[in-house]
Amino acid sequence: MMGAKTINNITMKDVCFRIPKVNKKLLKLMISETEDDLDPSMTMPAALYCSFIETMKTECYTKSILELWDFNMTQIALLTKDDIVYSVNTYNKDLIFGKLKSYDHLLGGIVRNETGHIISAKAIDNYWLLLVNFSSVDMNKAGNMAGTGEWASEEALDWELTFLNISETLAKDEKELYYFSGRSFGDISNNSMFQDIDKLSIGIVIMVIYVQFVISKFNWLEARILPCLESFCIYAACGVFMTFVFVITFFMACFVLDQKRLESNRNGIIPCIEHPTYKPNKCSQSRLTSRIFEYVYGNIILTTPGKVRHFDSFPHFTLSILMAYKSQIDELVCFR
């Protein structure tokens, strides 16, 4: 990702958030060996500490375990499992940016041995942090294109798009690769709101033509506007529009919260109650409607007497039901 370029030749180094790069040799001169565990910002005078920071070179602020090997892909490709475990447990935290350079929180599903050392992990997180250059934000071009309420510069959004394209390509080969960026929320919202505009427009045109053919008498005298129909159309249009708005905002948020509750094994009525060892019973996993259809169609309607009796009594009704539930009937026929 560090070497990824956009169409406009914008790289990560052009838009990244930069922090001072610690020179460990210089750090040893400034801090004695007995103060290794102390934060120099708390022990050094403010003016001296700030001047010390300003003289440092800068580097892109990334939060990735790959930084342990300086993103050297040749070196990373030669690593064994023992090499990785050793590096994760023995790396030196920078004394100045110790909290920023901690990698433990980037690991998920950590397994430790008796001594507390990490021996395995199920997932890793990688973060690439970008800088918002407020002086270059053009509201006519980018503004808040990220859709999160935060400002975003055009260059950063351009690089994020390249990042998403590269990640999408990698995700095709890696089934457990998940990715997102600051602009992802805005992209998804934009697609949800505008991807069906053409279908909606075609549907409206078809409805107008249909209504004209049904209620119009095609003459100059009896042509008139129906006020009640006009009011109903406006009311129905507003209802459909508000339903769409609720689906992409409030309802979606409710579904996300409910899914979060479900994954954390919380009670459906009283969410503050947790069920850490809950296992659904067999009855709750079976669909009642499927069982009813199986019994009615399998034991009554689809029998030879049932078919003859129903078709003789209600030929049109029976035919409509058979067409409506064709998929269920096919499954039951195969089952029988």
Automatic annotation (TrEMBL):
It comes from the Eukaryota. The chain crosses the membrane at residues 200-220, 232-257. InterPro entries: HMGCR/SNAP/NPC1-like_SSD, Patched_domain-protein, SSD. This is SSD domain-containing protein. The keyword Membrane applies. Belongs to the patched family. Coiled coil: none annotated. PANTHER family: PATCHED DOMAIN-CONTAINING PROTEIN 3-LIKE PROTEIN, PATCHED-RELATED. It comes from Dendroctonus ponderosae (Mountain pine beetle). GO terms for cellular component: membrane. The lineage of its organism: Eukaryota, Metazoa, Ecdysozoa, Arthropoda, Hexapoda. Residues 213-257 form the SSD domain. Keywords: Membrane, Transmembrane, Transmembrane helix.
